Amino acid sequence: MSEGSTAPDLSIATLGAARIDSPLAGMLDAWRTTEHYVNEDDRVLLDDTLARATARGSSLAELPSFEPCGPRRKIFFDPSKTRAGIVTCGGLCPGLNDVIRGLVRSLTYQYGVRRVTGFRNGYQGFIASYAHDIVELTPDNVGDITGEGGTVLGTSRGHQDPVEIVECLERLNINVLFVIGGDGSMRGAMQIAEVAAERAMRISVVGIPKTIDNDIPYIDQSFGFQTAFSRAAESIRAVNTEAKSTPNGVGLVKLMGRHSGFIAAYAALANHDADVVLIPEVPFGLDGDDGLLAYLARRVKQYGHAVVVVGEGAGQELLADPKPGRRSDRSPAATDASGNAKLNDIGPYLRERIAEHLGAAGLSSSIRYIDPSYAIRSVPANAYDKAYCLRLAHHAVHAAMSGRTSMVVGRVRRRFVHLPISVAVSRRNQVDPHGDLWMAVLEATGQPMRFGTPPTPPRPRKPKVAVS
Ligand code: F6P
Q1: Tens digit of pLDDT for each residue in 162-172?
Q2: pLDDT band at 443 (very low <50, low <70, confident <90, very high)
């Protein structure tokens, strides 16, 4: 976190006073007796060090803080008259089915909600022209879905008209909507909540943020991330075995992570096989005695092999100024349906440059290249992520039933909290090149703090029309 002494507005919007007795109220008295329970009137502090809290210069009660997750004694929606909707949006992530199952079971068994509707294929599911059917979700038909990766509801990228979405919710009498998606989808969820509010409709929109890139700010870890990097670590292990078994072998693994190198960093830490980790947050240069290529050549000479892990967003500045005649994909930058920058492919480019360099250095080398790509995110969640997904789902249901809206659930330093969507999408979580995670990577790999002189990133083009 680097917001210094200014803090975001962490207040959570509600649809109105909660006046209905919660079916869970009876359990609260017992829970309150444990030190792990955060009373609903209590707050979870944003700052976790004395220095940071002191630097705010405010009283204890004024310190920035999150609203805790958890069941409320009084709720806003009458469960017997509540209809819930669930949608999964964006790219896949391990645990989507676990979240769906957790939501359905909590709504049904904990609150007694009788109708839960699944929308198919992301936000398209609300839009008449796509003609996707809807599906009624019950504890029975979601009972067995968590053994599979992906999402039983299907997913898609892309913005859809929030007005049409709200009109669809209105037609179906849906009062609470759960959106499981990434930052683009969460912006969409925020717009749905805004349109509903403009129309004075009491619809709660609660997000369960999803991304294997682990780039959501404030929260400890996004669900599915641990599964994804564990699967990625298997690919590193495989290239290591290959590289070690070949004279002058080089293993190269490209891992997902568009702007954040958490998958590459954690997968590399998992088993100590990587000699170099390259992430989007730390630019690097290939050439010169202190460049990556010379470093690899020295390593291969000394140890007989080397393993490089590269996050897909790393080294984009190298690809921005292509040398003519190379095979690598360097199409001009564009965006996908979610508005994410499409990246040039660093993997084949590095493979080509490493092979050329080692060849020129007289090291005949075999390069083993693995791009596990979607394989790391299409797998079922591991046991840790399954438990995490379930807990997030329960907390999302408690929040929605209490009438909170335009918010997501997340865990901040082991406490489950509510975050306004606006805060969850306000910036991107990235590996801090001066932080302890990156230091751990440097220690584990033994790689230098920087490689060579990275090319200066191209200046953004001036807009054709002046924007005021
Ligand atoms: O956002 C998560 C992510 O897995 C990124 O790491 C990756 O760049 C992207 O999704 C690829 O997804 P898709 O091919 O679905 O656009």
Answers
A1: 999 999 999 99
A2: very high
Which CATH number is correct for 13-222+381-424, 3.40.30.10, 3.40.50.1000, 1.10.357.10, 3.40.50.450? 3.40.50.450
Q: 13-222+381-424 with 227-378+431-445: one CATH topology?
A: yes
**pLDDT tens sequence across 130-160:** 999 999 999 999 999 999 999 999 999 999 9
Catalytic residue among 213, 215, 371, 385: 213
Q: Which residues contact 40 (CB under 8 A, 6 or more apart)?
A: 68, 70, 72, 73
Q: What are phi and psi of 29, to 5 degrees?
A: -60, -40
Distance 208 CA to ligand 1 centre (A): 18
Class of domain 227-378+431-445: alpha beta
Q: Are 106 and 144 in contact (CB under 8 A)?
A: no
Is 213 assigned a catalytic role? yes
Interval 61-73: pLDDT, tens: 999 999 999 999 9
What lines the ligand 1 site, CB under 6 Å?
91, 182, 211-213, 256-258, 312, 336, 377
Ligand 1 centroid to residue 258 C-alpha, Å: 7
Q: Residue 1 pLDDT more than 50?
A: no
Atom of ligand 1 at shortest distance to CA of 212? Answer: 2
What is the mean pLDDT of the segment spanning 268-293?
97
**Amino acid (one-letter) located at 148:** E
> Using 50, 70 and 90 to split pLDDT, how confident is the model at 460?
low
What distances in angstroms separate CA 251 from CA 71, 367, 374, one per listed residue? 49, 6, 19
How many helices (H) and strands (E) in the chain? 13, 17
Count CB-CB contacts under 10 A for residue 264: 30
Q: Which residues contact 259 (CB under 8 A, 6 or more apart)?
A: 213, 215, 280, 313, 428, 430
Spans of all domains in the chain: 13-222+381-424, 227-378+431-445
Predicted confidence band at 458 (pLDDT cuts at 50, 70, 90)? low
Alpha carbon distance, N-terminus to C-terminus of the chain:
31
Q: What is the DSSP string of 185-229?
A: HHHHHHHHHHHHHHTT---EEEEEEB-TT---SSSS--BTHHHHH
CB-side exposure of 365: number of CA atoms within 13 Å?
A: 32
